[in-house]
Amino acid sequence: MEKKLGRNDACWCGSGKKYKQCHEEFDHRIEMFRKQGHLVPDHKLIKTPDQIEKIRESAKVNIEALDVVADKICIGMSTEDIDRIVYEVTTKRGAIPAPLNYEGFPKSVCTSINDAVCHGIPSPDEILQDGDIINVDCSTILNGYFSDSSRMFLMGNVAPENQKLVEVVRESVYRGLEQVKPWGFLGDMGQAVNDYIKENGYSVVREIGGHGVGLAFHEDPWVGYTTKRGTDMLMVPGMMFTIEPMVNMGKPEIFVDEENDWTVYTEDGSLSAQWEIQVLVTEDGHEIISY
Ligand code: MF3
Ligand code: CO
Known about the structure:
Helix content: 25-40%
Bound molecules: 2-amino-4-trifluoromethylsulfanyl-butyric acid, cobalt (II) ion
Strand content: 15-25%
Order of helices and strands: HHHEEEEEHHEEEEEEEEEE
Number of strands: 15
């Protein structure tokens, strides 16, 4: 529990304004939702304008790294080559690749091909082939602020049904994004994503989701895609999180590679695709911070 502020005390947000002229009304509104039984965000999940600006700077590097990958990725390249590109772009900007040494992760980026769902480890032995689909998941720390997004790339002649999977997952993220607005619920977003995936005959991975991000790599809330409209955490201005559904063409079940303890694969060997964006809840809707 946060300690109760007097109306004339300085606001908890650091604006320097009196509480009554700053977030008092905002807090009352959140309290109303809490009393109705909703899960509501803590103050520490609400970014200040200054923090948001610094996270945007971090995201500029993250976006640039993915833009350079998009420009250079090609058949015959190894996933280690992608790792090197991300490392170089990121460090050239004075930033740190967030995955590097994160809980023992050995590389600067995750590269997940075909039936790899996520957390693929770049390797010089893994060569991009004609027809592959690959997710490149890039995360950056700049001056202590975190950004995180991922994109899919199609290598050469990808079968039309596999292209469709990639396109549908991308669209699902934007269907979810449309639901991101203050005083709505994360479940509004989750259901929009899941409905669109199901309409297309695919399945969403249930165990791994998005997350709050900005001051740390992974903050609350956990962001799933199986919650229903009107449920899950209340969204309020200043919250920031990722939308990053992992979608399997076949069954939703997954397993973790026993050799490296990282790479997640589909249980049935079917293809999996993922897109990730980092989103800020604003006063009147949302802003994409990283993509
Ligand atoms: N970038 C992933 C995410 O979206 C996290 C990867 S953790 C790592 O949450 F260690 F594998 F990089
Ligand atoms: Co993420």
